Amino acid sequence: MGILATDYRVQVSPLGPAGASCWPSQPVAVSSGSPGQVIRLSLHPPPPGWCKRRYTVTVFLQRGPYCPRPVAGQPAPPCPEFATQDLDTGQTHFTVR
């Protein structure tokens, strides 16, 4: 049977309407840690550099099905069928001047 996958995803987005050149690449999901642990992530600017504006950083707890790869020569195990949930767990802002 499948397994429940739980990780944290961080989304960085410019506040308000912005062109594609102002959107940074998104950090990788955090899939391991322990309660109370502080995780530090690097935020990487868009290729032309940060746009002068305010950005929002949102942290999501993401839960959904995880199905391990089948073992060679064996049928794939059944996998749970339910939607992945993104729970907004916190937000902060920063401004590039």
Please state the overall shape, judged from the principal axes of the Cα atoms: elongated
Number of helices: 0
Reading the helices and strands in chain order gives EEE
What is the spatial order of strands in the main beta sheet?
A: 1-2-3
Stretches where pLDDT is under 50 for at least 5 consecutive residues are none
How large, in whole angstroms, is the Cα Rg? 18 Å
Key traits:
97 residues, mainly beta, three-stranded antiparallel sheet
Can you tell me about this structure?
The structure is a single chain. This protein has 97 residues and is mainly beta. The protein contains no helices and three strands. Strands 1-2-3 form a three-stranded antiparallel beta sheet, with no helix packed on it.
Task: Summarize, please.
The chain has 97 residues and is mainly beta. Helices cover 0% and strands 37% of the residues.
Write the layout of secondary structure elements.
Blueprint: E1 3-14, E2 54-66, E3 85-95
Antiparallel strand pairs: 1-2, 2-3
